[in-house]
Every structure is written in structure tokens, then in C-alpha cells.
Write a structure and sequence with these properties.
397 residues; alpha/beta; 6-stranded parallel β-sheet; 5-stranded parallel β-sheet; elongated
């Protein structure tokens, strides 16, 4: 029988969770209740709030006495994550709540593997759900009305949620052992030909390639997938999000971009793809301080800004530091003919001086291959693919 784990603040949402538990069971699944509330509850839980608090390194009594809601939410979220990590079986997770309950649930499911269904019904789901979803496959459902009793509207929403969780739990597909090894690749519009060439070569070599669009969310998703342990290697050809993080563009993936593969020892081949640009929205949204910079209107909603030699030098240092800290096989490929389609000779961002400032700052950190071609030369992508394959096969011998 498939198991749906219900994570909730039973002190404030007891009747709703009792209803959900019964509905999940009616739908043919086992239901396990995990209490993440601080106050007393009349609903018996399979994992009590005291157990959750203890798993989070806290005492429930101390959390109650402190009266600090923020600290309590943090502690119960950490505890719930620890509890879910050791629960077995677990085929889906379902949670309902407001901002606090949603925050606890989001932390609870953050470390669960990709592919394990995670559904949060929340009053916050009609706005920016980035804090709750992050880079994982979390499904958010808007509650429409507050989670305050089971009424004719909430019954419809909660009923759909229970059915969705039960259905996903029973239909969950496990990865097959005979499937091809997975490789992640990062791509942008201005590096697409390179990634296409690398992907085709990796396909020939027997890999399944997952391509991530380097838009901030894409980079975070790539890093999250590395954390899941599903990847045989990473072809990180497009590291442009680092430029947005440095300069203040709109597509930053945060300071931890380009760290997960190194931290977990996953073979990685990296290139400075599209480090020549910082991303903004429509032309009128570009900050005034950049008015005199080299700007390129990519389309009505995207404006690109060329990075300067100083910025490129700093990006090179940051890339070098991240790669030097890697615990697994790592190689850097440098395209001397430009790092993007816009950086090719005759194109608006062509600036060999700026590129060389970046390349010079990278030298010596890890194994480096300098190729006298633009990044989008098919031979460049194929060379990266071949080196990654060599790393992966050497590691499996």
C-alpha cells in the first residue's frame, strides 16, 4: 500500500488534517501524520511535535516558552526534514497551511529526492512561490479560502489535494536500473549550438542529457539535481548566471552556483559560457548607473549588458576558486574565439581584452584546455563531451 505523509501544524489545523487523513485512506493509501505544531493538539499524530522538535535539535517546551514564532518555524522545519529523511515507506508528502505551515512544509520536503511527489496547499500559492518551491519539484496549490475549517469550498480544494497526493503516490514511477546514465548541461540562447553539439555527442556515447536554461531558476535546479545524487556528470558550459550575481542582473542563481558538483565529487567539465553578458528586462528597466555601458536589446523583454574587463577578471577568479575547491574530476575549457554568439568577431559584444582578463584569472586552478575557436563551434561542445565521458568512465573502473 502506498503511503502519503501528512505534515502539518495539528495545533491549529487539527480538523483539516483529520479530514485529509481519512480521505487519503478512503483513496486506498496509508496516511502518516507528522505534527509540526507548537501548541497542544487533540489529534493523535504518528510522529509527535516533541519528536519533531527533538529531531531539529530543540525542545518543544523551550520553543513554547521562548514565544519566538520565527525560531519555532525554523526548528520545526529542520526537525520535519530530519523526520522525513528517515521515514520508510514514503510515497508522497502532503501539507496544508498558511505562511508558517507552508514554510515548515517547504523545508521538510526540500531534501527529498526529485520524483517523490510533494504537494503543499497554501494561502500563499497565488503569489511568488520561489521561497517554497526553490529548485525542487514541489507542487503548490492555492487554497482559495483560508485553511480554517472544512467547508463547501475548502472541501473541494482539500479533496483535490488528497486525491492528487494519493494518485501520485500510487502511480509513482521509480527509476529503472537499466536507464542510461544522466548528465546535466547548462544552456542559454547564445550558447545553444555548443550545447546541441555536446548533447548529440553524449547521446552517441550512451548518456541521457538534461538541459537546464541558465535563467537563475535553471541554475538552481541544476545544482539541486546534483544534490539528489542522480547525475553521472555535469557539462556546465553556460555559467552566465555568475555574471548576474556579480553585477546585479535579473538572472542570478545565487552565490552557490557552480559548487554542488565539486562538493559531491561529481565529474564536471566547465566553460565560461555567456560570461560576457548581464541580463536585464526591457531597455527601460536597466539601472541608470549602467546607461553608458554596451547594451544590446535581445528582444522587447530582454536587454543584455556587456561585462567589462574588470568584471570578467573577477568572474574568472570566482570560477577558479569554485573549481579549485572541487573534490572530484574537474576540467575547464576556454574558447579563445569568444564565450557566446554575441562575443564572436564582428558581433556587438566581441571584446578579446575583456575575455582574456577572465581567462588569465582562471589559469592554473584546474586542468585547462584552451581551444582557438568560438564557444559555439561544434568541435568545442564535442570536445567538452568527450572529456566528460573520459572522466566518468575512468571513475567507474
Amino acid at each position: 500500500m502506498a503511503t502519503v505523509v501528512l505534515v502539518g501544524t495539528l495545533d491549529t489545523k487539527g480538523p483539516e488534517y483529520a479530514w485529509l487523513r481519512d480521505r487519503v485512506r478512503e483513496l486506498g493509501c496509508d496516511a502518516v501524520l507528522v505534527d509540526v505544531g507548537i501548541g497542544p493538539s487533540e489529534l493523535d499524530a504518528d510522529v509527535t511535535a516533541e519528536e519533531v522538535a527533538r529531531a531539529g535539535g530543540a525542545s518543544l517546551a523551550a520553543l513554547r516558552d521562548a514565544g519566538d514564532r520565527g525560531a519555532a518555524v525554523t526548528a520545526m522545519g529542520e526537525g520535519a526534514a530530519a523526520v522525513l529523511a528517515r521515514l520508510d515507506p514514503i510515497d508522497a508528502v502532503l501539507a496544508v497551511g498558511g505562511s508558517g505551515g507552508s514554510s515548515i512544509a517547504a523545508r521538510a520536503v526540500r531534501d527529498l529526492p526529485i520524483g517523490l511527489p510533494k504537494l503543499i496547499v497554501s494561502t500563499m500559492a497565488s503569489g511568488d512561490v520561489t521561497p517554497y518551491v526553490g529548485a525542487k519539484d514541489v507542487t503548490m496549490m492555492y487554497s482559495v479560502v483560508d485553511i480554517a475549517g472544512v467547508n463547501r469550498v475548502s472541501r473541494l480544494i482539500l479533496g483535490n489535494a488528497a486525491a492528487a497526493a494519493a494518485g501520485m503516490a500510487k502511480a509513482r514511477v521509480s527509476p529503472l536500473a537499466e536507464e542510461r546514465p544522466l548528465v546535466a548541461a547548462s544552456m542559454f540562447g547564445v550558447t545553444t549550438p555548443a550545447v546541441d553539439a555536446a548533447r548529440e555527442r553524449l547521446d552517441e556515447l550512451g548518456y541521457e542529457v538534461l538541459v537546464f536554461h541558465a535563467t537563475g531558476a535553471g541554475g538552481r535546479a541544476l545544482e539541486g539535481l546534483v544534490e539528489s545524487g542522480l547525475l553521472a556528470g555535469v557539462l556546465d558550459l553556460t555559467t552566465t548566471e555568475l555574471a548576474d550575481d556579480l553585477v546585479g542582473g535579473v538572472l542570478s542563481a545565487g552565490p552557490d552556483r557552480l559548487t554542488a558538483a565539486g562538493r559531491h565529487g561529481v565529474p564536471q567539465v566547465v566553460a565560461p559560457g555567456a560570461l560576457d553578458m548581464v541580463n536585464f528586462g526591457p531597455r527601460e528597466t536597466v539601472p541608470e548607473r549602467f546607461a553608458g555601458r554596451n547594451l544590446y536589446v535581445h528582444n522587447p523583454t530582454v536587454t543584455l549588458m556587456r561585462t567589462t574587463p574588470d568584471e570578467m577578471s573577477e568572474l574568472g577568479r570566482r570560477v577558479a576558486a569554485k573549481l579549485a575547491a572541487a573534490t572530484g574530476p574537474t576540467a575547464l575549457f576556454i574558447p579563445l574565439g569568444g564565450v557566446s554568439a554575441l562575443d564572436a568577431p564582428g558581433m556587438p559584444f566581441h571584446d578579446p581584452k575583456a575575455d582574456e582578463a577572465c581567462f588569465a584569472a582562471m589559469e592554473g586552478a584546474v586542468e585547462t584546455e584552451r581551444l582557438d575557436m568560438n564557444i559555439n563551434d561544434p568541435a568545442f561542445g564535442r570536445a567538452m563531451a568527450d572529456r566528460l565521458h573520459q572522466m566518468i568512465t575512468e571513475g567507474s573502473e
